[in-house]
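User: Predict structure, ligand nicotinamide-adenine-dinucleotide.
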Amino acid sequence: MTTIPSLGYSIEIGDLHQGSLSKLLSEEFSTRKKVIICDENTHEHCVSYLTTSIDSLANAEIIVLPAGEENKILEICMQVWEALSEYKIQRNDVIVNVGGGMITDLGGFVASIYKRGIDYINIPTSLLSMVDASAGGKTGVDLGAYKNQLGLFSTPRLVVCDRIFLGTLPEEELLWGKAEMLKHGLIQSKEHWSTLKTKSASEITIDDISASVAIKNEIVKADFKEEHIRKGLNFGHTIGHALEGFFLDNDTKAHGHCVAWGMVAESLLAAKFGTLPMEEFNEIFAHIHSDYPPIKVERSNLPQLIELMRNDKKNNATGINFTTISAIGVSHIDQSYSEEQIHEVLQELFIAH
Ligand SMILES: NC(=O)c1ccc[n+]([C@@H]2O[C@H](COP(=O)([O-])OP(=O)(O)OC[C@H]3O[C@@H](n4cnc5c(N)ncnc54)[C@H](O)[C@@H]3O)[C@@H](O)[C@H]2O)c1
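Assistant: Predicted complex:
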């Protein structure tokens, strides 16, 4: 078991029976009600493993949500809050989120608002939520096509990443999770990028997961509220979120899939209009192109994509905000490009010919 200390909580990576979960639930939380929030897939594949092997979860209330990003919305939160109220969940009870990033984002938000905030534990079950979404304290939901517009910073009591759950995760979901790991390499560690580049998503090891978690955790610890260096973690997300929001109502595309191509597009911006050497862009393009299905839009959709970027919550008054890279492993926050430059890159990468 690897334990990575974060801001007042730990991220444990390994067999969940070897860590502090059982102890926390049966000692500090022994008299408290437990509520598991999951989606229909993690209910089917993950929850019974927990309720049958951890005594203190045997009688937990279970709230099962419909799966999918389109359900990471306030209307679903309302239903959860009503259920918590019906179960008479009190301020000192605890929520256990069991799922991918949709569940850890929404469940963390629900817990942090209910009765002005109750404790929650994240048990991520997708690769993406293990390496990124479950730790760091960003919770929230989408508002229409705008990603994560409603939310707050609030930390879990514990995060436990047990690889056993990846056994039932669809293969493409592993690929989407690997995108966030590649991001950690691209912004901070050429070594991590080079290791991941040689592996398929199914070959990712627990050490690779720990390396990604450690990179993100160091950044979050230095800048919890994203006032400076945490913005680096947004690499690929300005364009990635616009793509994800664009496809949300129709032909939904996974977050990690959009981030992978968002990183390609933002690397191309950096290569054409910044200082990223073109051969490094080519290396990034070649790896992502070989693994991730292309994303295509109509030329007439480009203004809508740019409009989505303009309304991204990462912006300030001066324009569309990017994290960019000048080399693999070296990132720079608060960079902006003109709409013409963005348009040029989108056209080069995303137009269906
Ligand atoms: N808070 C943050 O810092 C942060 C960071 C990155 C991403 N995110 C958010 O995370 C979300 C994406 O996360 P995701 O890719 O995990 O999406 P997700 O939660 O929708 O999970 C993807 C799919 O995998 C299924 N699934 C999850 N675990 C499974 C398992 N063990 N077995 C079988 N099926 C399983 C889910 O039911 C879902 O169908 C987005 O909403 C994104 O905005 C948040």
